């Protein structure tokens, strides 16, 4: 039995959660699952109007104490619980939101694949080409993929801008005006400027944004780095020599784990050099695949708890 098969099943599960959350992100405003309507200064959550009781206080229908409790229980407390939940998960498992749910990271991976087909690289700033899963060995760059890459970046850049606008204005109004060519001046400016910025980011700086520009990702990384017991990709340095002839059908030239990482990281580095790891597990699968073909144990594996602490201590001693 292929030792990497459980990891591959986990990877399929990750793709499913990404697709589901991507659809949720696009459709949430239409179903009032989460949006703040600027036209009537109203927050919608799970199809219901979410109020803090301030209007009732202003109209004399609630006391100051009731208004204060409404702000605390329906405003501050839910926000703190959400932050605690995200950071609590990140404390134990790292940036799993980024790698398993985030719609932007789904685009990063998709655009990586298109750019790989166009020029053999995962980023315009890479100095050399990189083998990539999903492409046949010895498949060279194909220029016909350049228009697909740029068109995809532009399409999703505009889609991102329109979607964000529906979180602030009634979705039916935004989409109706867009399809009928009757956008207001402010709506058109928002979509044009936002779409241009998102497109430029997707083409030029999508990896840099994920690493350093996203506040959600940054705070997850900080929580993860503070916990020496957190889930980490551990590298067996005692068997580092086995990496010399590491290769897979997707990375015949070696360094299969490096080629697999969509964040452009080097998975064999120590934890602090893997600050923006999104726990996607693709490097672990690549390592398992390479070593399975030679009948040896993989050098990369996920560890958590005491094993992760041992890995942290080994890194500090090294």
Relevant terms:
mainly alpha, two-stranded antiparallel sheet, 3-stranded antiparallel β-sheet, flat, single chain, 5 strands, 318 residues
Overall description:
By secondary structure, this protein is mainly alpha-helical. It has a domain at 219-317. It has helices at residues 5-27, 54-58, 64-93, 96-100, 103-119, 145-166, 171-179, 185-204, 206-213, 215-225, 256-260, 282-292, 306-317, and strands at 34-37, 42-45, 48-50, 232-235, 300-303. The strands form 2 sheets. Strands 1-2-3 form a 3-stranded antiparallel sheet, with no helix packed on it. The chain has a two-stranded antiparallel ribbon with strand order 4-5. A hairpin with a 2-residue loop joins strand 2 and strand 3 (48-50). Helix 3 (64-93) crosses helix 10. The model has no long low-confidence stretch (mean pLDDT 85).
Task: Explain the layout of strands and helices.
Layout: H1 5-27, E1 34-37, E2 42-45, E3 48-50, H2 54-58, H3 64-93, H4 96-100, H5 103-119, H6 145-166, H7 171-179, H8 185-204, H9 206-213, H10 215-225, E4 232-235, H11 256-260, H12 282-292, E5 300-303, H13 306-317
Antiparallel strand pairs: 1-2, 2-3, 4-5
Instruction: Report the radius of gyration as a whole number of Å.
Output: 23 Å
Largest sheet, in brief, is: 3 strands, antiparallel
The number of distinct helices, counting runs of at least 4 residues, comes to 13
- With strands numbered from the N-terminus, the spatial order across the biggest sheet is 1-2-3
Characterize the overall form: flat
Whole-number mean pLDDT: 85
Helix content: 55-70%
Could you spell the SSE succession in H and E letters?
HEEEHHHHHHHHHEHHEH
Number of strands: 5
The structure class reads mainly alpha
Strand fraction equals 5-15%
Distance between the termini: 36 Å
Unreliable segments of 5+ consecutive residues? none
